[in-house]
Model the fold of this input.
Amino acid sequence: MRLGRGVEWTLHCCSVLGALPPPLTISGSRLAEFHGVPAPYLVKQLQKLSQAGIVEATSGRRGGYRLARPAGEISLLDVVTALEGNDHAFRCTEIRQQGPTAVEARKYVRPCGIARAMWRAEDAWRAQLAAVTLADINDELDRTVDPKQMRKAIEWFKEEL
Amino acid sequence: MRLGRGVEWTLHCCSVLGALPPPLTISGSRLAEFHGVPAPYLVKQLQKLSQAGIVEATSGRRGGYRLARPAGEISLLDVVTALEGNDHAFRCTEIRQQGPTAVEARKYVRPCGIARAMWRAEDAWRAQLAAVTLADINDELDRTVDPKQMRKAIEWFKEEL
Done:
């Protein structure tokens, strides 16, 4: 079971965008350069976030990305779902309704207990991700990252802004 | 994010094996037939469970599979891990250490807050799966499946035993 690498990349981008004072924006290529990742793939992922209403893209010479709503109102689950969709990781194909001893479909009233147990676990995962916002991530970052490094990053972004 | 279809298949097989009085076994082809799934792929998955010490394969004309330990001592997590491995779904590639403002590796003392939040969610998922055993699944099955259907399934398996 694997989440795409876009999840890591865009979460880091969202963390950067969450620290950006409005109305500033940062271009996709600048975000890619900062994180040392290829811009074309990153931009595709950012477009998914844009479609999901998590980031906004502005156009023009100084166009770029910014968060579409406050960092405290965007959860990790919002970002993950925007990229990975909402499907269950565990797929129930109702194999209990297959084979020689299956009965009429109407007899299978509730989802299978195996599927329900697997989905309860996914609910727990989602609940955890829903409980953490980009603001939480950045609050912790502010408390834990070396101030010198933080300044270095801010200065680097300011070169373009 | 997707779990392989082998997870559904083998969980259903383990549920059947968990209801089997020792020392009986059921062959892989019979398990495949019962569930209406292709035997070669199912047997590959069952071999992974065997390597993980969840099922045991006996050889000989009446050889087949049985649980390697009591159903109450095998969790859904055991089965999922046997098939899918133990890797995190969220891969942290330490992109914070890339790019023009990265500092020396030794400065990154703790895992990144993003990775830790993502992994906490996976821990919640694992904890839920670890809390449910094959015996729990079968207890619920006994309470909820139509007794006629249950008898039909038992009779079908008895034909071979």
Observations:
- The mean pLDDT of chain A is 93.
- The first helix of chain A runs from residue 5 to 18.
